[in-house]
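User: Can you recover a sequence for this backbone? Please restate the input before giving your answer.

Assistant: Of course. Working from this structure:
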């Protein structure tokens, strides 16, 4: 049953974004499905009964907001999910990769949120930014991605303080290990899958819908007193540091 609300989800042509779109649609949201790929946006939109809003988040954020507004004249939620990763050591980063990563992962979040703010404010809406557990813990070869996502977390906290008086809540989600199309080459290897799964206290790799359910909560009235938070959805993986240290009485 429709709740009469519209949410714009970026990067929702597949992976985590599509999982978020599916859960939100199940909860009654009309999802404006954005993706840089028109075909992927249309595919997810058809699956969830939403509206395809294709486009590059770095190109014209205002146009994406206007396209979402065209659905019903209002915008009640924004999920900044679109992201890219460029791997490599910090000492050898290509400046073009730096610009591209910060452009999609951080600058687009800033620009799209600002474009959506007046409409979210009038609707008493909310923003959910998809960050990463990488914003909290270093990962070899992922320093640029981690820095961009740490920026998203800092931006989320600042926006929550500045925009709370305008009736807009802002939170971030930090996904852990999630099985998506992008990561399928890793998880299709049963040995690698098991090695990773064994590190996670809850005993499984996450699914895109795990992120979707938290996003749905944060966008809902049930989260009306929750703002400025970075919620890690990682099965407690980031809390296991000391579990790997030798303890008195351990045997080799």
């Amino acid at each position: 049953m429709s709740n009469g609300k519209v949410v714009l989800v970026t990067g929702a042509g597949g992976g985590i974004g599509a999982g978020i779109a599916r859960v939100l649609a199940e909860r009654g949201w009309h999802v404006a499905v954005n993706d840089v790929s028109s075909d992927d946006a249309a595919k997810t939109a058809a699956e969830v009964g939403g509206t395809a809003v294709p486009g590059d988040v770095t190109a014209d954020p205002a146009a994406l907001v206007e396209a979402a507004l065209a659905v019903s004249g209002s915008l009640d939620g924004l999920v900044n999910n679109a992201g890219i990763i460029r791997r490599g050591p910090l000492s050898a980063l290509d400046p073009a990769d730096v610009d591209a990563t910060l452009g999609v992962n951080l600058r687009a979040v800033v620009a799209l949120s600002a474009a959506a703010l007046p409409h979210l404010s009038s609707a008493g809406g909310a923003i959910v930014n998809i960050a990463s557990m990488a914003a909290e813990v270093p990962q070899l070869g992922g320093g640029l991605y981690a820095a961009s996502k740490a920026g998203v977390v800092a931006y989320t906290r600042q926006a929550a303080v500045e925009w709370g008086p305008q009736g807009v809540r802002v939170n971030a989600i930090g996904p852990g290990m999630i099985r998506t199309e992008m990561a399928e080459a890793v998880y299709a290897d049963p040995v690698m899958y098991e090695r990773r799964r064994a590190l996670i206290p809850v005993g499984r790799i996450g699914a895109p819908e795990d992120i979707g359910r938290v996003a749905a909560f944060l966008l809902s009235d049930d989260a009306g007193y929750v703002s400025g938070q970075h919620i890690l959805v990682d099965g407690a993986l980031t809390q296991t540091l000391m579990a790997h240290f030798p303890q008195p009485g351990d045997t080799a």
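That completes the design. The helical segments are 15-26, 38-48, 61-69, 95-123, 143-163, 184-187, 190-198, 208-219.
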